[in-house]
Amino acid sequence: MKDKRIQIIYDLIDTILSVIRLLGLSRLKKTPRIQSKNTQCIIMGNGPSLLKLLEEDKAVLAKYDFLAVNHMARSAQYEKFKPSIYVLCDPAFWFAKGYEIPQQLVKETFKSMVDKTTWPLQLYIPYQAKKAGIKALLSSNSNIQVYYFNKTTFEGFSWLKYKIYDLQWGIVRPQNVLNVALMLMIYSGYQRIYLFGADNDWLKNVWVDEKNRIRHSEIHFYSENKEGKQICDNSQKLHMVLASLYIVFKNYVDIEEYAKKKRVKIYNMNPLSFIDAFEKLTCGLK
User: Fold this and answer.
1) Sheet-wide strand order for 40-44
2) How far apart are the first and last CA of the chain?
3) Secondary structure (3-state) at 42
């Protein structure tokens, strides 16, 4: 009984803070739903296991809408799969202050979208990116339509936060782009969502060196070698990294609970993925 009362207090505090955030940060209007061709979709994460998608039968793949994230436009797979949906969430993609280092990579990604996209593409980016001139960067390609979504965190009582999610005024904490993509897919009415390349196995690729610097290997499906790119981070301590990962994996659990409420099924297609919130399939698509 005591634990339940404490949880109610926590939920009340989270709800109050979330309402304040929503009123201060969100655009209180619905995000345009994704224009879907199918009731099922494939979210293509950037993990190495995404390459297994190439093994699927082309006739089977035609039954699914494809969603790309982050820098996929720079890869050969972008033109192969021709995703109809693209989601960006990281502040680096709208050149936010403090994200100056990856700006050249971001510009190359937008240029790849412009140069390669010969099919209709729906690009979803946060409202915070509206002043960054991304529409202007992509305006020379009429195939790309830009839409905005609220990335405002909303937590607290389930009965209220689910209503906010339904309105798309707020979402789970947008800790990574897959969290956001899943929320947009549920909101847009997809019945089944399949995750490819969602390895999320950062824990085995993080270590602390002799100078107490956090180091990790950044491995994507388009990495030139299996070890990926080594990153050295002087700005964080290990507890900060682990706290960030905690939020990512808790978000997946919260998203699964919301998906069940909306009668949406989410499948993780990588049996070795560290995500333990969704049912894993090893038999491939049908």
Assistant:
1) 144-149, 121-126, 85-87, 65-69, 40-44, 192-196, 265-268, 279-280
2) 46
3) strand
Phi, psi of 215 (to 5 degrees): -125, 145
- Cα 189 from Cα 263, distance rounded (Å): 10
Find, among 131, 132, 175, the residue nearest to 153 by Cα. Answer: 175
Q: Which amino acid is residue 271, in one-letter code?
A: P
Structure tokens at 108: 């190359």
Length of the chain: 286
- Maximum pairwise Cα distance, the chain: 61
Could you give the CA distance from residue 214 to residue 204 in angstroms, rounded to a whole number? 13
Helix or strand (DSSP H, E) at 273: none
Sign of CA dihedral 203, 206, 210, 211: negative
Q: How far is CA 202 from CA 11, 47, 57, 174, 250, in A?
A: 30, 10, 30, 17, 15
Mean pLDDT of the chain: 90
Q: What is the CA radius of gyration of the chain?
A: 19
pTM tops 0.90:
yes
Q: Which residue has the higher pLDDT, 268 or 219?
A: 268
**What is the crossing angle of helices 158-167 and 2-25, to 10°?**
30
Q: Token digits for 178?
A: 């897959």
Q: Which two tokens stand for residue 130?
A: 């509206």
- pLDDT higher than 80, residue 274: yes
Q: What is the pLDDT of residue 64?
A: 96
| Helix, strand, coil percentages in the chain from 3-state DSSP, rounded to 5 | 45, 20, 40
